[in-house]
Amino acid sequence: MADPTALNARLRKLPSVDELLGDAQVQALLARHPRPVVVRAARAAVDQARRRLLGGETEASVGAEQVARAVAEALRPGLARVINATGVILHTNLGRAPLAAPAAARMAEVAQGAVDLEYDLGLGARGARGAAAMELLAELCGAESALAVNNNAAAVLLALSVLARGREVIVSRGELVEIGGGFRIPEVLAQSGARLVEVGTTNKTRAADYAAAIGPETASLLKVHQSNFRMVGFTEEATLGELAELARPRGLPLLFDLGSGCMVEPLAAELPPEPTPARALRAGADLVCMSGDKLFGGPQAGLVVGSKALVERLARHPLMRALRVDKTTLAALEATLALYRDGREGEIPAIRMLRESVASVLVRAQRLAERLAAAGVAGEVVATSSQVGAGSIPGASLASAAVALSGDPEALAARLRQGDPPAVARIHEGRLLLDVRTVPDSEIEPLARAVSVAFNSGGSEVSC
Ligand SMILES: *Cc1c(COP(=O)(O)O)cnc(C)c1O
């Protein structure tokens, strides 16, 4: 325990907030920034110094420099660009799919002015919202019609509200899943006002189970893609084709929640095949719902494709007004779709990361290790495996390469998260790994700088 008298003396020597605000350099800050921001920063600087003294440190200076730093911190945008060195390609907590450059550019372009969002320039009159993007989406999926909403949860909610409010929806017990972030199929069904009719068992559901459950109250059959888990062993599920054979003659719409929205076959050589919306529609689905920011590689959105009559019913429902997307989302969607149309999907970052050969990832890992070595940080290039993420293609992993850093991995990871730019890494078998499958070329230099700062500010926790 530190000497309490000395500690008290040090605490008493700390300036008051008012004294700090009287400092000439802090006055200069007050001239440039809102007073409440500077006052809060001054208070934070004093509080921090007090905490350090109470924590046992014998030196804790508070002055204009500390206040300026606290002001800069307070004014920094809360939503920060970070480097994703986790190797998880579609990291939901890190914003899922990064946009392709043309999509980001179009987004910025339409954000800064007026656009023909719901305006037909030919007629000089009101037009359909985002019509061009929706036509392109429908065309690429081989669908009659398409619609975009806020996210896939919204798409499923809207579809069920329109198709089945007050009536029954038949779902396999093997597909009553939770997608993550609390999206549970039974709960969304309940919110839509539809009644859930469960059929089959967890591991086996046959077409006959659905057939037996169809009755006068049945409004729709729902199939959910097992996007975030795998069932192995003694399993059986009804195919879309079998369900379409049941639904068609009875006039029941068949809804398929596809989840990840993979648009190309094959997606990547190393990965198991994923269903595309085009394939699902050909197999007999009437409406397919999917996310815009998973394997599709675009902005956050829920995309619905399918029959014209059903899509129009969704578009006219009052909920649509609450779930619709804005002009920037539509611009990014259209630009991403144009890349698919032009056979340039390799420019979509998520797809590029999925398809990149391990040899090419390794070259980037070596470059990072060299840059780190030049900054005095020892890093070892190691083989590892990346994940697809966002509950897409569960169990699949991609051979990858990482730079492993020595030292206390938790402490180093914490400092990297506080860096400029912040970087998020992965801890594996007691070492901190920077998996560069998810770090593009342009971020290798900034990552090397951030790591060397984090490494060299570590004090005793990190052994070099
Ligand atoms: C991810 C997913 C959802 C939710 O999509 P969001 O775009 O995150 O709202 C719904 N269903 C399935 C099958 C999914 O994989």
What's the short story on this structure?
It contains 19 helices and 16 strands. By secondary structure, the chain is α/β, with parallel strands linked by helices.
Features:
binds pyridoxal-5'-phosphate, disordered C terminus, five-stranded mixed β-sheet, single chain, 17% strand, 464 residues, seven-stranded mixed β-sheet, alpha/beta
Task: Explain what the structure shows.
- By secondary structure, the protein is of the alpha/beta class.
- It has helices spanning 4-13, 17-22, 24-32, 35-54, 64-75, 101-111, 131-141, 152-164, 185-192, 207-213, 240-250, 277-283, 308-316, 318-323, 327-341, 349-355, 358-374, 409-417, 444-456; strands at residues 83-84, 88-90, 119-120, 125-126, 145-149, 168-172, 195-199, 218-224, 254-259, 287-291, 302-306, 379-389, 397-405, 423-424, 426-428, 431-435.
- The longest helix is centred in the N-terminal third of the chain and has 20 residues, at 35-54.
- The relative contact order is 0.13.
- The structure holds pyridoxal-5'-phosphate (PLP).
Q: Give the overall average pLDDT.
A: 93
Bound molecules: pyridoxal-5'-phosphate
Cross-sheet strand order for the largest sheet: 5-11-10-9-8-6-7
Structural class based on helices, strands and sheet pairing: alpha/beta
CA radius of gyration: 27 Å
Low-confidence segments: 459-464
Biggest beta-sheet profile? 7 strands, mixed
The 3D shape can be described as globular
- Total strands: the figure is 16
The helix tally amounts to: 19
Which percent band covers the strand fraction? Answer: 15-25%
